[in-house]
């Protein structure tokens, strides 16, 4: 079985390792810059100009690696999961409960992918357009729009549990069981359809 605690821990550590490795170039190309004014002094972190990588090229690479690539990966994996889920029940007639379970899982997956794509797209586009000198935060409106876009991106980091709570009965019951420290919902039903049982033919001792 691949779904073991040990393999889960290995996957989590691997994911964090990949994320940290991808983040190294971001830290290497940014630095703290001091801005002096007539009656103020500011320090801000921003992209450091260099002879190897321009801001526009860096932002295009960042857009592809931190938005397009993750979106393609999760969309492809979820699509494969949903396809496998529905293909598994095509050989036999599915019960109503099985159909409802598959529809719930499909709906949850679609909403999660759409939430990720829509919440991260505004800030990614704004940063890309700023690097290309198409979008300028020189007015109050453009600054507010960027703040809203960044807030939406931060929201995506905590919205998945909310989506699961609204779209998954299994998640709600398990969460209720966890926070109450009781066994009230120990025998909750999964959103996935039950496993198909296989009947085995038995031969009698007479050989008939």
From TrEMBL:
Keywords assigned by UniProt, alphabetized: Cell membrane, Disulfide bond, G-protein coupled receptor, Glycoprotein, Membrane, Receptor, Transducer, Transmembrane, Transmembrane helix
Pfam families: 7tm_1
Primary localisation category: membrane
Membrane-spanning ranges: 52-78, 105-123, 143-167
Recorded topology in the membrane: Multi-pass membrane protein
Keyword Disulfide bond appears in the UniProt entry: yes
Superkingdom field: Eukaryota
Location relative to the cell: Cell membrane
Sequence similarity: Belongs to the G-protein coupled receptor 1 family.
Protein name: Allatostatin-A receptor
Source organism of this protein record: Musca domestica (House fly)
Organismal lineage: Eukaryota, Metazoa, Ecdysozoa, Arthropoda, Hexapoda
């Amino acid at each position: 079985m691949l779904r073991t605690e040990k393999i889960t821990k290995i996957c989590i550590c691997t994911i964090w390792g990949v994320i940290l490795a991808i983040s190294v170039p971001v830290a290497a190309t940014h630095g703290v810059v001091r801005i002096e004014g007539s009656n103020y002094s500011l320090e801000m972190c921003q992209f450091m100009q260099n002879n190897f990588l321009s801001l526009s090229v860096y932002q295009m690479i960042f857009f592809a690696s931190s938005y397009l690539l993750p979106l393609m990966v999760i969309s492809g994996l979820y699509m494969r999961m949903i396809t496998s889920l529905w293909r598994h029940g095509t050989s036999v007639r599915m019960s109503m409960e099985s159909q409802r379970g598959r529809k719930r899982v499909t709906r949850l997956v679609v909403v999660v992918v759409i939430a990720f794509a829509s919440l991260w797209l505004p800030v990614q586009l704004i940063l890309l357009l700023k690097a290309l000198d198409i979008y300028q935060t020189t007015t109050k409106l453009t600054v507010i729009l960027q703040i809203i876009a960044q807030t939406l991106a931060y929201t995506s980091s905590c919205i998945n549990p909310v989506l699961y709570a609204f779209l998954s009965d299994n998640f709600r019951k398990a969460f209720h069981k966890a926070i109450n420290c009781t066994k009230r919902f120990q025998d909750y039903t999964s959103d996935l359809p039950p496993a198909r049982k296989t009947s085995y033919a038995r031969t009698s001792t007479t050989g008939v």
